[in-house]
Amino acid sequence: MNELSTNQLQKETPESRELVLEIRNLNKSFGDHVVLKNFNLKLFKGENLVIMGKSGSGKSVMIKCLVGLMEFDSGVISVMHKDITSLDQSSLDILRGDIGFLFQGSALYDSMTVRENLEFPLRRHSHLFDTSMDVDQRVLEALENVGLAHTLDLMPSALSGGMKRRVALARTLILQPKIILYDEPTSGLDPITSKEIIQLMQDIQKKYKTSSIIITHDVDCARVIADRMILLIDGTNYAEGTFEALSVSKDPKVKAFFKR
Questions:
Q1: What does the pLDDT look like over 129-168, one tens digit per residue?
Q2: Which of 67, 18, 66 is nearest to 44 (CA)?
Q3: Is 234's pLDDT higher than 50?
Q4: Fewest CB atoms within 10 A around its CB: which of 10, 48, 53, 161?
Q5: Backbone dihedral angles phi then psi of residue 13, each to the nearest 5 degrees
């Protein structure tokens, strides 16, 4: 990690902040192909952390390792102060209930209505939430949070790209996760809809005090949403700091991310 960004990070993240997720010296290879090499990451409570990297740089692999969907070669991943490698399957499933995931393509079930898409995680994880509020109430509240209460009985095919992304976000929020992982949240959206999604992400952070990791290639999204950024280059946390600090770096590898 370059020295300028390290100094910036020390100013931005004092020790008093609560650490909710940490990756230490993560290594992952596929045969002779090294994807992640001693990769490090810290996420603090209430923070929006943006990760940028070229296609194939290891961002998706890192996320899969983080949620326990892929085994890694070595390193430590701690979520809510729990080492995920030390958890049995039941404990890992419970921990995953604290992590929401917004997929790049929204990943709605085409054969289900909007209502049924949102009911699905509730019925699957009914043991994770307070049953004093019934399923219908939770579904309606989640859709109201994204301004789409009127879409309850529509099929995904009747929704625009931006509406699908909002419904997917409502589904992510319905279990009230402490951490949200966004995979290219503005990908494939027009500039106006992208701004609406970014604003919605900010509103959600303020309302629910969520901590978020945002994977994006969208420099405008990063500029607005990032409290802090990590540039994933050659499998490592190559540079880290605020958007402002990184965008004026003289390092050619860092500058390449901010060229227009």
A1: 555 568 888 899 889 989 999 999 999 999 999 899 999 9
A2: 18
A3: yes
A4: 10
A5: -130, 75
pTM: 0.85
- Least confident span in 5-14, 194-203, 213-222: 5-14
Domains and CATH numbers, the chain: 1-98+177-246 (3.40.50.300), 107-176 (no CATH)
CB contact at 8 A, 211 and 20: yes
User: 35-41: long-range contacts at Cβ-Cβ below 8 A with a sequence spacing of 24 or more?
Assistant: 35/61, 35/235, 36/61, 36/62, 36/65, 36/72, 36/235, 36/236, 37/234, 37/235, 37/236, 38/75, 38/236, 39/75, 39/232, 39/235, 39/236, 39/237, 40/1, 40/237, 41/230, 41/237
Token code pair at residue 88: 């049995």
Classify residue 117 as exposed, middle or buried by CB count within 10 Å of its CB (0-12, 13-18, 19+): buried
Written as six digits, the tokens of 163 are 């509406």
Residue 58's identity, in one-letter code, is G
